[in-house]
Amino acid sequence: MTDQVTADYNRRCSGGDRLLLESMSRAELPSALAASMRGRFLPRPFFIDRDKILGFCAKVQELFDLMLSIPDRFYDGDRERYALAVGMDARRAGYLARYTDRPELYGRADLYHDGGSLRLLELNVGSALGGMDRAQICSALLEVDAFGSFAADHGLRFVDTGKQVEIALRAAARPVTGGAAPVVGFVDANGAMAPYLHLARSFQEMLENLGFAVELGELADVGFAGGRVTVGGRPVDLVLRYFGVGEILDDPAGLAVVDRLVQADADGAVVLYTSLSGELFNNKTSLALLTDLRWSGRLTSDEATLVDTVLPWTRSMTLGQVEVDGATVDLMEYCRQERGNLILKPGADFGGAGITAGWLVDDVTWKAALAEGSTQGAIVQRRVVPRAEPVLDPTTGVPQDWNAVWDCFLTPEGYAGSHIRALPTGGGAVIGMGASVEARTTGIFYYGAGSGGAPSGAGG
User: Fold this and answer.
1) Which residues are 322's β-sheet partners?
2) Which of 17, 217, 272, 389 could be bridged to 231 by S-S, CB 3.0 to 4.6 A?
């Protein structure tokens, strides 16, 4: 069901308001953002009720807290046992077990809207996040007179992700800088940055426009001199971590740099953000484990309700007998029978890699994928069908339905803004800018209680 703001936007555009219809093409976007997206913008932003988006993201934060409690509650505080339980190999589990600090609330929740409610598909924990620069779309749209007037009519607001990142990084770096804007080293694994350098430069531009100095580099560009950490030869106060444990364990030189960064952080010479402890939870199987615990009766009734509200039915393929809708069934047999309603995902991959959508393959392919998934630590999830989002083509004026992922960022301050990734309806199972050349992006505004007055990026 289309919300009333979207209906009014499309009604005005189809009724002849060309200036509103062409708002996106008239918006003056930051140069690096425009270059990074290469014209892949939807013609309009998306709209959602304030209480719906903020309320759901508050539940995701509760789910994050619940996830962090699992090692202590069910694995006697043994991080290595927990890591093995969520499908990590022994080497990765052993390495991460040393990190016992509490991970920062800094991540991205990937949501579908099924027409009635939002549902969480994935929770990306840690600082290696894409899309944070796209809240700038909303800022640029508000400078277009036609859209600014429409936004004022409906009391539209948005949360500026860049400003929330600024708050988070200043707070994290305070032990080193005393609260001043830190010099940030954006650091990836060796050999990892080239494919998305255009995206990193857009993020860099956003932070620099907020008063930060940002050096882009890989682990080989990190140095240690005079009690300081450097990136590309420049002393930095905070290293924004874009490398993951899977990359560094296969790179002895990179791992040695990471170990020195961890020590420099402990010594107060630099802040490594985010902590590698978050890697223990940056795993799709961590969500499956929550549903396994829920259906085994080991969570409280309130926790079980939270899991049911936020997550679609999700299970680890390593299980045998499971409960489904009150009945105990063999998981493999259930999955074979329910192919059209299930999607299979690797536990640790990202960017849509390795996903098999049951409704898009035949029985033979699905059976083989299930067999492989049961040995590779995959998870199976009940399909969530995203609602159709009607978007008018500015050239033809003809509406087209799109399916969207509502990406919602979280920082220690809470909800930190959103953006959209979308595909034409029927365009595929994985909605990602890197997964399909048809994918497009746009910003998100919210409306409703507490969002009246002048359009704003302040949030709240």
Assistant:
1) 329
2) 217
The pTM for the full model equals 0.92
Helix (H, G, I), strand (E, B) or coil at 47: strand
Instruction: Report the C-alpha gap between 127 and 276 in whole angstroms.
Output: 10
Asked if residue 412 lies in contact with residue 104, where contact means CB atoms within 8 angstroms, the answer is yes
Q: How many CB atoms lie within 10 A of CB 338?
A: 16
Helix locations, 210-300, DSSP H: 245-248, 252-267, 284-295
Residue with tokens 């489904």: 324
Question: 213-218 and 183-188: which strand pairing?
Answer: parallel
CA 89 distance to own-chain centroid: 24
Going from the C-alpha of 92 to that of each of 86, 146, 280, 352, the distances in angstroms are: 11, 53, 9, 22
Three-state secondary structure readout of 378-426: CEEEECCCCCCEEEECCCCCCEEEEEEEEEEEEECCEEEEEEEEEEECC
- Summarised one tens digit per residue, pLDDT across range 382-428 is 999 999 999 999 999 899 999 999 999 999 999 999 999 999 998 77
Taken as a whole, the chain contains a residue count of 460
C-alpha closest to that of 61 among 20, 16, 109: 109
- Say if residues 140 and 27 touch (Cβ distance below 8 Å): yes
Q: Is 22 helix (H, G, I), strand (E, B) or coil?
A: coil
Percent of the chain at pLDDT exceeding 70: 95
The amino acid sitting at 39 is: G
Q: What CA–CA distance (Å, rounded) separates 190 from 379?
A: 29
The structural domains of the chain, with segments of one domain joined by +, span 4-55+114-160+413-447, 313-382
Q: Is 80 helix (H, G, I), strand (E, B) or coil?
A: helix
- Is residue 307 within 8 Å of residue 299, measured between CB atoms? yes
Secondary structure (DSSP) of 316-345: ETT-SEEEETTEEEEHHHHHHHTGGGEEEE
For residue 167, count CB atoms less than 10 angstroms from its CB and return exposed for 0-12, middle for 13-18, buried for 19 or more: middle
Residue 313's closest CA among 389, 79, 329? 329
Separation of first and last alpha carbons in the chain: 26
384 and 312 in contact (C-beta within 8 Å)?
yes
How many angstroms separate the CA atoms of 364 and 261, rounded?
48
- The stretch 320-339 carries a mean pLDDT of 83
Residues pairing with 224 in the sheet: 229
Three-class SS state of 279: helix
CA distance 238 to 275: 12
Has domain 313-382 been given CATH number 3.30.1490? Answer: yes
